[in-house]
Every structure is written in C-alpha cells, then in structure tokens.
Amino acid sequence: MRIDVFTIFPDYLAPLQLSLIGKAIEDGLLEVHVHDLRQWTHDRHRTVDDTPYGGGAGMVMKPEPWGEALDALLASYGPITDGPRPVLLVPTPSGRPFTQAMADELAAAPRIAFACGRYEGIDHRVIDWARQYFDVSEVSLGDYVLNGGEVAALAMIEATVRLVPGVIGNSLSLVEESYSAASDHLLEYPVYTKPASWRGFDVPEVLLSGHHGKVAQWRHEQSVEITSRRRPDLIT
Ligand code: ADE
C-alpha cells in the first residue's frame, strides 16, 4: 500500500513514523510520502489561500497548487495497469462520516492520497477535477470542527493500516474489537487483567470461573448493555 499526504503542515504527520505504522513502513508493507503543498506555489510568499468568491469569513485554498500537486502525484504513479483507480480522501467536517467499514475497504486499496485542507477548505473545483482520475471521497472524522484535515488523516491512516494483512501480529485481536462484524457491530465489553483485586475493586467473578461459555455470554451482555446506553443508534 502506498499513502501520500498533501498538507501545508508536514510536521503534523511525523507520528506516522512511530509505532505500528512505522514498523509497517520498515517491514515494506507500507510506503508513506508526506508532501508540503507549498512546493507547488510560485510566488514569493508561497501563497496557498485567497478570499472566498461570494464573500464571507475566512480564506479558501487556491486550486492551482492543488492541481499541480495532484498532477505530480499522478505522474509519480506512472501508468496504472493493475487494480483500481487511486483513492483520494479529502478530510472535511462536511464529508461522509468515516467508519470501520470504510477502513476495511481502504485497507485493500493499493494507492491512497489525502488532501488536507486548512482554513475554510479547498476550492471545490479541485474535487470535481480530481474525480476524473481518482475515487474521491470527502470524509469527516466526526461532528466537530478541527483546524484542518491533518489530524483526521492521521486517524484514518491508523484505522486503515492496522487492517492491512501482516501489520498486526495477532490478527485475531482485530476480530473481536468494537464495530467488528464478529461482535455484531457492538461496542467492546470491559476488560481486566491481574491482580484479581485492586484498591478494593474486584474483577467480575465470571471471568475467573474458567467457564468459556459463561464468559462469552457475560461479554456479549456487557456489549449489548454498553452499546444501548452509549450508542443506541448501533443496535439494529
Ligand atoms: N477538518 C476539519 N474538521 C474536520 C473533521 N471533523 N473531519 C475531517 N476533517 C476535518
């Protein structure tokens, strides 16, 4: 899998070199390229934004640097003879909500790029133009506004890369977690480790019983209970 991130704050993406994702890069399972959008500006001030047509507060990212950046990306791919069109994700609070199902789908994509907008967003013609060459999705991390797409891109990359075969040593740990199909898309039950008693709080008796059937039933009940309380929308 190859991931390209376009941003005016490349340093925001430094954590990609750490931990599981860093290891996946080292192991050759993943290639990550972070690009400073300003390299595709041509004025002295390296301008990437301008005032919005129609008026209003804030600034809009100019189309020209984005066009050149994406041209360079397409050129670097070379002719794509195998597999699907490259994916272009545009993080924005007005996008479709990012879900585990999307992460599952992205984990199979050979080429993914992120266009991280700042200010009031990217001139929309960039998105319309890019649809000719990419599978473009405008995606939101949640119903709140971040300062830009970088943190959202980091989260989406982490959610995706951990699903790429070979990235997580024990793939069984992916099966039982929250939102997984095997857990009926419920939230995960609470977990405990040793000691059995800590500061007057005890591990639920059933988990010490060694009775696998009862443990599984207790965990399922906990999942249903927690999900109905916190996320009733997930219960079908
Ligand atoms: N950019 C700003 N806010 C965002 C959000 N909630 N999701 C994705 N990208 C964003």
TrEMBL record:
Catalytic activity: guanosine(37) in tRNA + S-adenosyl-L-methionine = N(1)-methylguanosine(37) in tRNA + S-adenosyl-L-homocysteine + H(+)
GO biological process: tRNA N1-guanine methylation
Major location (coarse): cytoplasm
Keyword line: Cytoplasm, Methyltransferase, S-adenosyl-L-methionine, Transferase, tRNA processing
Transmembrane segments: none
InterPro entries assigned to the protein according to its UniProt record, in alphabetical order: Alpha/beta_knot_MTases, tRNA_m1G_MeTrfase_C_sf, tRNA_m1G_MeTrfase_TrmD, tRNA_m1G_MTases_N, tRNA_MeTrfase_TRMD/TRM10
Assigned EC number: 2.1.1.228
Broad enzyme group: transferase
Positions with a binding annotation for S-adenosyl-L-methionine: 117, 141-146
Example of a GO cellular component annotation carried by this entry: cytosol
Subcellular location(s) of the protein: Cytoplasm
Domain of life: Bacteria
Domain tRNA methyltransferase TRMD/TRM10-type: 1-235
GO MF term set: tRNA (guanine(37)-N1)-methyltransferase activity
A Pfam family it matches: tRNA_m1G_MT
Quaternary organization: Homodimer.
Recorded family membership: Belongs to the RNA methyltransferase TrmD family.
Function: Specifically methylates guanosine-37 in various tRNAs.
HAMAP family given in the database record: TrmD (MF_00605)
Protein name as it appears in the record: tRNA (guanine-N(1)-)-methyltransferase
Gene symbol of the encoding locus: trmD
